[in-house]
Each structure stands twice: as structure tokens, then as C-alpha cells.
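How a chain folds remains the central question behind the approach discussed here. For one protein, we set the task of working out the C-alpha cells from the amino acid sequence alone. The sequence in question and its C-alpha cells are set out directly beneath this paragraph.

_____
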Amino acid sequence: MENLRFSVEVDAPAQHVWNVMLGLDTYREWTRAFNEGSTYEGGWNKGDEIRFVGLNGDGTSSGLFGTIVENRPHEFVSIRYLGDIENDVEHRGGPAAGLHENYSFSETGGVTTLVVELEVPDEWADDMRAMWSEAIVGIKRLAERG
């Protein structure tokens, strides 16, 4: 397992950055870094199950699913993965099960520092590093756009 960390300063209040990152319409924009059809199903409240999916070439979806273990609005979200989704079928367990992904938002003087920390299987690390490096810049661009 590898721990990855990404950080960006966004010239916008934390509430706005939060809304851009987690709002469904803007989520679909910045997550193109992972898959052109990326979306989520479920909610961001503590205890909610959430599915992060993208379309495969055959029209089925693949991705990850988990539970929101912590949600402090405009400050922090933590996800614990339960498994993966392949061709529309959930598989509990597997390499993602038990791993965490955390989003932290801290605002000073109208500028928000967004930090994304995630645990990934070693074999996913290079791909996730490349995709998240692009995605976090997308969040900044969307949030600063207005």
C-alpha cells in the first residue's frame, strides 16, 4: 500500500471549494481526469454508502464503493472503501477494501488549502498519482472560475 497526498491553494472560500468538489455537476467535470463518464451515486453524509463509477466501453460501469466515515461540512470528509465495481457488479473485498480517502479544507483570508490524502494499492499508485495531479488542478480551476 502507498499513501498519496495532493495539495492546492484555491482563491475561494472553503464552502465554495467544498461545493465544487462534492456537487454532482462539478464533480463530473473535475473527475474527467479519472474517466470521461465519472460520477457518483449516494451521499456524502456520515454513514452514507457512496459509489464512484465510470463507464466502460460496453456501457457497464466500474469503480469503487465505500462508506462516508466522517463529514464535517466545509472542513473534512473521510471515505472508507468496501470494495470495487466491475461491469456493474459490486465485489466486497479486493485491493481497495479498508483503504481510506480523505479531503481536508482549511481557509485563511479567503484562500482555501485543499488536501487530498489516499491509500492505494501499490499497483495503482502511478496511475492514481497522475490522475489526482490533474484532478486537483481541475478543482482549483472550477472553484476559481466563479
